[in-house]
Amino acid sequence: GNQWMLEWWLPKGRAPHTVTDEELLAWERDYTTECDATSENLDAFKVRGGKFIVSGGLEDSIVPVLPMADWFRRVNARYGGKETHTFCRFYLLPGWAHGPGRTMASCPDYSAALINWVEKGIAPESLPAKMRDGSTLQIAPQW
Fold first, then answer.
1. d(CA 140, CA 103)
2. How far is CA 108 from CA 26, 114, 125, in A?
3. Does pTM top 0.70 for this prediction?
């Protein structure tokens, strides 16, 4: 999944498929702390008053939703559900793949939700998503 990042690390003209296991381990050792997004420690972000929305498509075969859900469970375990929801919301999107899926036509407007949360203090209790049949589905955050 990090092959595109390898292209920046490799010398110009070197193809990612030529990387040896030893080189890959060295790359991971050198860059994991900068590229890793799996820590449940969001203390610094929370203290700064940060807010963010995380979502995963239930039909996404490229970015699997289960590791994202596991991460969110760990965040909840660290801060508690109510405290987590003061700065982070996680939404599971039914019918969403790595783009429009079988039933969902467009993803929710995360920007508007985040702007309302940050600038007006209105946390997104649900996100509206347009469905292929023309209806709107209100997606509630996970706890």
1. 17
2. 39, 11, 13
3. yes
Contact indicator for 96, 89 with CB cutoff of 8 Å: no
**Beta-ladder partners of 138:** 128
Q: Give the residue carrying structure tokens 């508007």.
A: 112
**The two three-digit tokens of residue 60, written as one number:** 């996404």
Tokens 């783009």 -> residue: 99
The predicted-structure confidence for 14-47, as pLDDT tens digits, reads as follows 887 788 888 878 877 776 665 567 789 999 999 9
Helix residue ranges, H only, 10-99: 21-35, 43-47, 65-79, 81-84
pLDDT in tens, 42-101: 999 999 999 999 999 999 888 889 989 999 999 999 999 999 999 999 999 998 988 888
